[in-house]
Known about the structure:
Shape: globular
Oligomer: single chain
Order of helices and strands: HHHEHEHEHEEHHEHEHHHH
Largest sheet: 7 strands, parallel
Strand order of the largest sheet: 3-2-4-1-5-6-7
CATH architecture of the largest domain: 3-Layer(aba) Sandwich
Radius of gyration: 22 Å
Structural class: alpha/beta
Mean pLDDT: 85
Number of strands: 7
CATH topology of the largest domain: Rossmann fold
CATH class of the largest domain: Alpha Beta
Number of domains: 2
Low-confidence stretches: 88-100, 315-326
CATH superfamily of the largest domain: P-loop containing nucleotide triphosphate hydrolases
Amino acid sequence: MTPARSDDELxxxxxxxxxxxxxxxxxxxxxxxxxxxxxRIDGLTGRAHVIGxxxxxxxxxxxxxxxxxxxxxxxxxxxxxxxxDPSSPFTGGAVLxxxxxxxxxxxxxxxxxxxxxxxxxxxxxxxxTGDLIRVLDAFGKGVVIVETVGxxxxxxxxxxxADTVVVLEVPGLGDFIQAIxxxxxxxxxxxxxxxxxxxxxxxxxxxxxxxxEMSNDRSGWRPRVLTTVASQGQGIAELVDAIESHHEHLCRxxxxxxxxRDRREAELRRIVQTEFLARLDGELARGGEFAGVVxxxxxxxxxxxxxxxxxxxxxxxxxxxAGSRAPT
Length: 328
């Protein structure tokens, strides 16, 4: 079978809601080998409510996502889950702990869970997370939940991928001030104090509410602070209500469409950046003028800024660029 026919057959099965075809397309997307296929399913995207769940290690993200997905299913929502796992230091692959912990959900045909490796990407998301979200969206999942590795300076990027961002905290970690410094306060649409049966839960909730009082208004939505004990299912129904309320607000205000347009533009920029760097690496590996520019920068004979100008301004000669100048 030719590659074109193989792609046609895969997409036909995908459109017929074949879960094995979904798994295959997710694998291709995660490995950066699905650009043409993603282009062909792009018209099917833009319908899912994307929920980002983030928080430091130990706050109970996986347990909460498990309970959240189950609660959404009880409301007849189909759910896709993307768990971004830490990379193995030996293989670069996902540790896959999240998927093991959520294995009880995998028997439900209305839920599809996918773990992926962060592959050392800065922040809590892998570079191809957005592609996996689009595949699940195109497959028809009404809700896509994305669980990040953790909270830090880079993890705020979840705000650029999700319609609703849920930030988890727990009593006793003592890292909330650091989370605020990382910009988490600005990206959260909902804040959840999980493990609220522990001492200090009310104090953490009050602290978050106090900080939100001093923050700027964001398009008419006031972030809410909820409490849960996810391991026991407590507060999950209220969290689902709050998530749906936020989604309704986005729809009424027109913010949902704005967020999604911004997201598509950001994805375009990410792809251009990634592709450019990959092509630059290829040119450097081949040697020639590009490698010469880098060598001159390394040796101090050319400033980094001037070197960048030369590399950015150069185009390889081709059918339409025969007169282009290579860097000198």
